[in-house]
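Why does residue order matter? Because the sequence determines the fold. Keep that principle in mind as you read this record.
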Amino acid sequence: MAINKSLQDITEGDLQALVDNKVEEGKTFEYKESLDNTDRGKRKFLEGVSSLANAMGGDLIFGIRAKEGIATEVCGLAGIDHDQVILGLESLIQQCIKPRVPGVYMGAIRLANSNTVIIVRVHKSWAVPHVVQYQKHWRFYSRNSRGKYPMDIQELREAFLLSDTTIEKIRKFRAERVQELFHNNFPIKIDVGPEVVLHIIPINAFTPGVRCDISTLYPHRHDLIKEWTDNVGCRYNFDGFLVYPPLSQESYSTYAYAQFYRNGIIEALEASHTITLRDDGIIIPYWYENRIIKLLRNFMKFQKLLKVEPPLILMLSLIRVPGFKIRLPRGVDIRQYPTDRSLLLLPEVIIETFEDNLPQAFKEVFDMVWNAAGVSHSLNYNGEGNWRAGDT
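Structure:
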């Protein structure tokens, strides 16, 4: 990306710095002086978006004049309604790039000269390859340091294979970790019992060379697990950085931990004697679902600090929960049944940005936990399906 900031934080000064520093277009961004609404212009725009999604992601910047690929002036787009322009570009992408490109976001920066710069930010896709279908044009594109180019047959084969293997690698990682935890192989001694496990996995976590600077987490160690405790234990380990509530003086064990991996993955576990799962076989859903949403939001904040790029795959697992029941709210009379298995491996949830609505994204997953106890849906959502479990 041309500017390593969120879209809402980019200023005219950041754009001017591209000119002052003579920043050249590259594999992850390109400049456009104007909007071209001809058929050729629309096709070129679609080629740019699809090529970024099929490669490393990046930015298309409308309103910067360039010469031989080097930014020369922040001129902006004159006389436009940026909201209408963005709606039009979004509609074009949705109609003409297949499959749908997840993680495309647009922002407008008002300039001092009253013109507007529009930035189209495209994240690396987990659903590659994407094809441009515009009128009679049908073609796949990718990018290198010289810009976009049509993909050849070998590249297409590799892209289709990569799309399949990426999701399989993520699922395999989660399955192997849950089996390890089920057999009491924790990164720290845990008071074994029913456990809730969260995995937050960036889609590019298994891309060769992806590494995060985990040393940046140490100054924030108290905030990392503030949903669990005001005190913290922490240490670097082989996998990355581990944080946990203080160890018991009697057993030298704890009830939770968060493991931050060097490739951006987070594994968080909370054991039974907390408010999430009770030792007497009761799930208290108000606390359990609230806790999960709060933990996710907090952990994802620190993935952002580590410069992790979405999309993210979120996975929830309940371990050692045979015979568990859900505590129903007062006044609710529903026949329920105990869970019938030790492991509940809930389906993955795909989050395209750090700002996505987590309660809404997790509704189906939470419903399935209630289903496992014989209840039709999570009662922490109202009749319209909106979250009402608390202020999260």
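The helical segments are 12-20, 39-54, 82-96, 153-182, 221-224, 285-305, 358-361, 363-372.
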